[in-house]
Design a protein that fits this description.
Blueprint lengths: L1 H10 L2 H14 L4 H13 L3 H14 L4 H13 L3 H14 L4 H13 L3 H14 L4 H13 L3 H14 L4 H13 L3 H14 L4 H13 L3 H14 L4 H13 L3 H8 L32 E5 L4 H7 L2 H7 L3 E6 L13 E6 L9 E4 L3 H4 L18 H10 L7 E5 L9 H4 L3 H7 L5 E4 L6 H9 L3 E2 L8 H8 L4 E5 L2 H8 L4 E5 L13 E2 L2 E8 L6 H29 L1
Parallel strand pairs: 1-2, 1-4, 2-3, 5-6, 5-8, 6-7, 8-9, 9-11
Antiparallel strand pairs: 10-11
Helix pairs in contact: 1-2, 2-3, 3-4, 3-5, 4-5, 5-6, 5-7, 6-7, 7-8, 7-9, 8-9, 9-10, 9-11, 10-11, 11-12, 11-13, 12-13, 13-14, 13-15, 14-15, 15-16, 17-25, 20-24, 22-26
């Protein structure tokens, strides 16, 4: 009967196998194999706690069995009891020092315990014991990717695939690393190989869509995301990614709806809408007349600066508007039209009836490209600070050009959207006074900044965003990468030139040189991925033309006088 149960188990007929294991235990409560295997099938079926209990009973009967120790460790890991899982794998290794499988599982747990060096050693030991262990090479590749050794990770995945040509997961992860290595065609080929093995692999369709999106093959990207969603209708990551493509294409009607899936995806916004009670969530379905509504920041500083404009719209609908934002923005957003009070995230809030995250407001208000509010500007700089900066810059009588060349270094696309200062300055004309708007300057850029007398470094004088806003009001043009400074300057209505990577953020749409979000913004896009030199050359030409226009205007005024 046990052999038959084991055959059913191996064939995938879990229910029939479980029934037979239970029958055996009913006749023989001390049957080690039946207890062990029923524990395994129970844990695999989604109840690791019950499976662990059965395996513990088996161990009490035969404490020297290596397999049950390994399977027990797998169940403990599923329960999040990582230290206990590690101890179980160590016990298996103590019983059989040449157990490669235990070393593989041990490496997985050590990786999750954030002990990468020890984890790597465990994988290496498994491979030394069993060079043909594809799982060891695969997991080693995953760890090497986390350790930012992408080339070595690809080698490990390649070895896993050579040992097991139908290893769809290895093809998927290999594609992910190739994407990080900026090898999009190779990444697509790897995803396609994963799909050839496993046609219903939703993750491969998702990641394939992301590579296509980054290559600006947007319709093809949509097809991949649609396929992922068809295979997994609750696939939040696919909906959220599809939203970015739809919004990039200007399909706001469908894009905003898809964008709500951001709350359900892994690594979603830091401030979930449920924080203030899902029952109070407002998405436009009820009247705001006489209500107090809280608008909450949820993502980066630039997002908050961009979407706080909606406060005036809600106020016009009869609401009292409270704004909850990141601490650095509290003061500069205090004058936003329509806002009654501004609070720092984490501070005590007054009572309110309704709540809406800032980036859900376009959905709630059915925003389309032609109905974006306050595109002419909606922020006001502090007059006293504007005057202070006017005096500070009085000695610089030519055109004053503000520069912001890098954003948040933790941003997932920082390497695409930030520019080394040396690269930016190498292409800009030398006939201008450049003024740094960067508060956070990276070490390599600090050296460049120190060496350039034509770039005024004001880091020590920029106390907060109020200072940055007031400084922007004293500049002729702000040149910025896609960062909070670009949004701040655009929201002030200042002439702002935004430098965009080949694959821009969804809010900048495609091909346009203007922005419906900010009338004062001009967009300078990469035509080829990574080629900032071409973008800076166009900016340089525009600056020279602006200088000529300024000189011409000055001459005309002098002649009139």
């Amino acid at each position: 009967m046990l052999d038959r149960a084991l055959a059913l188990h191996r064939s995938g007929d879990s229910e029939a196998a479980r029934t037979l294991y239970r029958s055996i235990i009913a006749r023989d409560a001390g049957n080690f194999d039946a207890l062990h295997l029923l524990g395994v099938i129970t844990a695999q079926g989604g109840d690791p706690a019950a499976g662990l209990s059965l395996m513990d009973r088996a161990i009490a009967i035969n404490p020297g069995d290596v397999a049950v120790r390994c399977n027990r460790g797998v169940a403990l890991r599923a329960l999040g009891r990582l230290d206990a899982a590690l101890a179980s794998f160590d016990a298996a290794i103590a019983l059989r020092p040449d157990c490669a499988e235990a070393y593989v599982h041990r490496g997985v747990v050590l990786r999750e315990l954030r002990q990468p060096g020890v984890a790597l050693a465990s994988y290496d030991r498994a491979i030394a014991l069993r060079p043909d262990a594809a799982a060891a090479h695969f997991n080693r590749g995953n760890l090497l990717r986390e350790l930012r050794q992408p080339a070595a990770a690809v080698e490990s995945y390649d070895r896993a695939i050579a040992l097991r040509p139908d290893f769809a997961d290895a093809f998927l992860h290999r594609g992910n690393v190739l994407r990080e290595l900026r090898q999009p065609q190779a990444a697509l080929a790897s995803y396609d190989q994963a799909l050839a093995i496993k046609a219903d692999y939703a993750e491969a369709h998702l990641n394939r869509g992301t590579v296509l999106r980054e290559a600006m093959q947007l319709e093809a990207a949509l097809q991949s995301y649609n396929r992922a969603i068809a295979l997994r209708p609750d696939y939040a990551e696919a909906y959220a990614n599809r939203a970015t493509v739809r919004l990039l294409l200007g399909d706001f009607d469908h894009g905003w709806r898809d964008y709500e899936w951001r709350w359900s995806r892994s690594g979603g916004p830091d401030v979930p809408r449920s924080r203030h009670g899902r029952e109070r969530l407002w998405l436009g379905e009820s009247s705001l007349e006489g209500k107090t509504i809280l608008l909450s920041a949820e993502q980066g500083l630039g997002d908050t600066l961009q979407f706080c404009r909606y406060a005036a719209v809600l106020s016009g609908l009869g609401a009292r508007v409270l704004l909850e934002v990141q601490p650095p923005l509290v003061s500069v957003l205090a004058t936003v039209d329509g806002v009654s009070q501004v609070f720092a995230i984490g501070s005590e809030l007054p009572s309110f009836e309704l709540h809406c995250p800032l980036l859900s407001l376009p959905l709630a208000l059915k925003t389309r490209i032609d109905s974006i509010p306050a595109a002419q500007g909606y922020l006001q700089a502090d007059a006293a600070r504007v005057a202070k900066w006017r005096e500070r810059l009085a000695a610089y009588r030519g055109l004053r050009i503000g520069l912001a060349w890098s954003g948040n270094r933790q941003h997932s696309h920082d390497r695409d959207r930030s520019i080394p200062l040396a690269t930016l300055l190498a292409g800009l004309p030398t006939d201008f006074q450049y003024i740094s708007l960067q508060k956070d300057v990276r070490e390599v850029d600090a050296r460049t900044l120190h060496a350039r007398a034509d770039v005024l470094d004001l880091r020590s004088e920029l106390r907060d965003f109020d200072d940055t806003a007031a400084l922007c009001k004293n500049l002729d043009v702000v040149i910025s990468v896609d960062s909070a400074v670009a949004h701040l300057s655009g929201a002030l209505g200042q002439p702002t030139w935004v430098l965009l990577p080949f694959h821009p953020d969804w809010r900048w749409l495609t091909e346009r040189s203007d922005s419906p979000w900010y009338r004062s913004v001009r967009l300078f896009r990469q035509v080829r991925a990574g080629r900032w030199d071409e973008v800076v050359a166009r900016v340089s030409s525009e600056l020279v033309a602006r200088l000529a226009q300024s000189l011409s205007s000055s001459s005309a005024r002098a002649g009139t006088a």
